[in-house]
Amino acid sequence: MSYPAVSFEFFPPKDIPASFGLWDAAQALLPFGPRHVSVTYGAGGTTRELTHETVTALSRQGAQVAAHLTCIEASRAETLAIAEGYRAAGVTDIVALRGDAPGGGAFAPHAEGFTSSVELVGALAADGFDVHVGAYPEPHPESRSARADLEWLRAKFQAGAKTAVTQFFFEAETFLRFRDACADAGISAPIVPGILPIHNWASVARFAKRCGTEIPAELAAAFETAERDGRSDLLALAHAAELCSALVEEGVEQLHFYTLNRPTLTRDVLRALGLPRQEPLRDVA
């Protein structure tokens, strides 16, 4: 039987309890044999050192790691030095992003930095890194239009990106329409759907509004009822599993999970999809 490839996103822990949480998440999910795991990079580079430490720790567990890197609040030299630090740790996959300013402010490039994610992608690709980028199946809040988003995505691929992972969405049709639009625009590189299992509906709904993700009225009503009846966990599992199943049935070959360092729901979705577990990975340092 054929199963989709998977990848997971983690974020760097900020204290000792969170470090144990990340360890538990890694131990629960790495046995599913992810194609890679990615590690986020805080707004304005606020988790720079923590990201590097997390990347190194996961790499020592035998995982293929893709480290996030942004082009905000750092010079070109500083940004490329961070990339070289990843390479020294054995990591050559980088998720190249524009990045957000701390506090949610407007993007303003460093005077000596990269002015856009396209420039960052080009520099990293030219330096031998395997570059992954973000994509938006629904228009980015700062975008002029969905067409403008497609043109920007195509520019990132032309600059050297290998794959793109989408922002999360709630309905399979949202991704499938986007995939068709990419094909019509001449984009043939892999586009991986980003899946956000819903651990907390109120939090996810707030985030969706900030990033321009459409919230289906039926889903919102279903979660309101489920939370009242104490069945929100069951609904979250059913929704994520059905979403993933629908994508796989339409030929999607890889699923990327935004885990929030909380492995249980993602693990249960993978079990529902029938993905086999492998032997646990061990520290190879």
Q: What pattern of helices and strands is seen along the backbone?
A: EHEHEHEHEHEHEHHHEH
Portion in strands: 15-25%
Structural class: alpha/beta
Q: Level of helix content?
A: 40-55%
Give the strand tally: 8
Architecture overview:
This protein is α/β, with parallel strands linked by helices. It is 45% helix and 15% strand. The chain contains 10 helices and 8 strands. The protein has helices spanning 16-29, 48-60, 76-88, 117-126, 146-158, 172-184, 201-211, 217-229, 232-249, 263-273; strands spanning 5-10, 36-39, 65-70, 93-97, 130-135, 163-168, 191-195, 254-258. The protein has an 8-stranded parallel β-barrel with strand order 1-2-3-4-5-6-7-8, surrounded by 5 helices. Strand 2, helix 2 (48-60) and strand 3 form a beta-alpha-beta unit. Helix 4 runs parallel beside helix 5 and helix 8 runs antiparallel to helix 9. The longest helix has 18 residues, at 232-249. The model has no long low-confidence stretch (mean pLDDT 90).
Give a quick precis of the structure:
The protein is an alpha/beta fold. It has helices spanning 16-29, 48-60, 76-88, 117-126, 146-158, 172-184, 201-211, 217-229, 232-249, 263-273, and strands at 5-10, 36-39, 65-70, 93-97, 130-135, 163-168, 191-195, 254-258.
Structural key phrases:
eight-stranded parallel beta barrel, 285 residues, 8 strands, alpha/beta
SSE inventory with pairings:
Blueprint: E1 5-10, H1 16-29, E2 36-39, H2 48-60, E3 65-70, H3 76-88, E4 93-97, H4 117-126, E5 130-135, H5 146-158, E6 163-168, H6 172-184, E7 191-195, H7 201-211, H8 217-229, H9 232-249, E8 254-258, H10 263-273
Helix pairs in contact: 1-10, 4-5, 8-9, 9-10
